[in-house]
Structure formats: C-alpha cells, structure tokens
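Note to self: keep these together.
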Amino acid sequence: MISLIEKIRAGNDLSAFDVQEAAAFLLSDSIEAKTKADFLTALHDKGESASEIASFVRVLLERAVPLEIEVDGPIVDVCGTGGDGIDLFNVSTAITFVLAAGGATVVKHGNRGVTSRSGSADVLEALGVAIDLEPDDLRECIKRLGCGFVFARTYHPAFRALAEMRLRLARRQQRTIFNLLGPLLNPARPKRQLIGVFSPDLTMLFADVLRRLDCERAWIVSGTAVDSLTMDDVSTIGPTVIAEVNSGKITSAVLDTRWLGIPQATLPELTGGDARTNAETIMRILGGGETGPKHDLLIANAAAGFVVSGLASEMNGGIAMAREQIESGRALEKLKALQNFVA
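Structure:
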C-alpha cells in the first residue's frame, strides 16, 4: 500500500494490476484506516484518471452480489454522485416512477445519504418502498413492475470495511474516488445511464469511463444552481453541461431548459429537506397536487431519462412523455405498485 501511495504522489497513474492490489488493501480489515485514507487522499490529489476509475469499477463489481436481469429492451439507471451540497428533493429517485410508467426498465442503484440529508434509500423507505430486496425478489419486482431498487449496502457487502473511514473523510469534506464510483457500481450492469455529477469538469471524465465500460448510451449532466454551485441533475435554474456516450462516441453539449418552454426556477424553490419531507414532495408531484418548479425539475430530468432509454428521440418528446405519465396517474400507480410489492 505504501508503494502505491508513493507511486501516486510521484504523479503516476495506477495500472489495472495496481488497482486490483489497491482494492484488496482497501477492503481488508487488516490495513489501518489512516493508511487507507492516505491512499484515497493521494489519489484524489493527483486526480483520478478514466482508466483508474474504470479499473476500480471492474474490480469492485466482481466483488458485488451478482444481479442478472433478463428483460426485453435496455435497462436504464438514473443516479447522481451527490456531493453538490444543495439538498434537492431526490430528483433521480422521483423520475424512476415516471420512466417505468412510460415503459422503461429502471434498475435504480443507490444508498443512504452521506453528503445529503436524504439519499435514495432514505426517501424510498419514507415512501414505504422495500429497499432491501434480495436478488431473486428484486428480479421478480423488476419483471413485474419494470423497476426496482438496488440498495448499495446490500449488494456491496465488501464496502463495510470502508464505512467508518468514508464517514470520517466525508466529515472532513475530503472527496475520494468513492464519491465518483456510486453511479458506476450498479451490479445489474445497465447499458444505459443518466448520471448527475457534482461538477461540470467531471462530465467528460465520466463519459470516458463509461465508454471504457462498454456503455451503449449515457448522459452525464451537471446543472447550474447559483453562483459557483452546481447540481447533479439537469437544471431548470440555468444551463446544464452534458456529455453523451452513444455507441462508443463521446460528444458534449449545453442544454438550457428555457429553450424547451420550462420556466426558470430559483434554488430555494427546488431545495428539499429530510427523507419524510422529500417523500411528501414526490407524492404531491406524482399525484398532481404540485405543479410548480419542483414538478418542472422532475419533468426535465425524466425527459432526459426517456432520451437515454431510447423511448424519446429528443427532449421535447421526452417532456411530453413525462407529463403524460404524471397527468394520467400512471407514475403514481407505479409508485403504489412498488409500495405494495410482495415477492
């Protein structure tokens, strides 16, 4: 481990073999937490390369609980890195029900909140959705309902060796490669993804990683919030930087949802709260009781999900699909079906 730290501090990238060794050290109970923290801090200070991130993803997925999903058509995941410090209302979780209602197969990967008051697992729990389904039950849920939740703590048991150290680093506001890996570690290995990142500088890096991992189609988005703050979602406050992966090709673009007829929002209008507050917000939006800025933010991000999944050819079509799922009540029906799911 010490030699790997020295290699990184000298400015050298880790090879795939180095990453295998590093992962074994990080997930070992016999290595001191301080040494693990030193390694992760040094790697962050150097800057994680696309090849290093992709290698970590491959190694860590090998250690995950297997989850093979057989469905007609592509599987999509919608997930953010978190870490933007804004505390929105669990947008990517909310659009899961809209996308599934519109015919997408959504396998949502997520965890409890670390950098926010409400992670996807927290808000789903508050909504009364089972978050800890074992593989057989989860497969049945996805087969029946077209969506399901992959709880990272259940499907990545090896990460327990890192929990205390990661919490300590998070409290110090020290970012590491694990702040980047979450959206990439879905054990169902979806070929299509909508990923939100906490900095526009990460969009092209993630696109390169996903290309290396043979992703078919992905959007990596980082939206304007206010001043220097960004959000790991498509923004309705200002422009959103997008990197797209499509059949091995990477392109970049800027999207302003005002071009699509969505009114401009302000950050206070979009801010969420704890898990219960966010669950109530999601229920109101899906039930048609809230039609303001938070509803618009959900529509914009669901539209992007429909484009990535291949169900819409462009954002205007995606917006129309998203509105239809909410106005018809189908998105709320999808949430209720998940609440009532019994294996």
